[in-house]
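<context>
A single protein, sequence plus fold
<entry> Chain with its tokenised backbone below
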Amino acid sequence: MCTLASYGKDSGLKTSRIATDEVRLKISQKGLYALHALMTLARRYQQGAITVRDIASESDLPIKFLALILVELKHARIVESVRGYSGGYRLRRAPSEIRLSEIVRMIDGPLAPFGDADQLRTLIAGDVEHRALYQVFLDVRDSAAKILDNTTVADIIAKRPSAKRKADRQLIERKSATK
């Protein structure tokens, strides 16, 4: 089972935690927004540049925060900006070439909550009494890294529910709200 919950501030950024059984992987709100924006750009990859306003609207993201994230993605050479009447942003590479690990690490740094693998290896080597505990943390971190390394933006948009299922779900939610 996988749940997503928002928590308070962490290093100045709102974070979300994805909980799978007992393990929690913290991803900042900024990281989630970056992934949402990339999913939108990937779904419309063949259409060329997309305005920040359209990305924000389609992904339900705050436009000012999204604009900052897109600049960061541009500096990382993941997206490129196009000027002019049909301007906006587009992916620099195919969605199948953009790994989730690249985005998460770029925005949030080492895979949280267990930090950098080298730090964990140092703890394993130096703290004999707690070595087994740190090894578990390293194994969890390595498993999460492997999943993110082997998942591309194309993979997650391929798993996206169809527009019809999304519309059906929204209709059910509206009916529930009126009762």
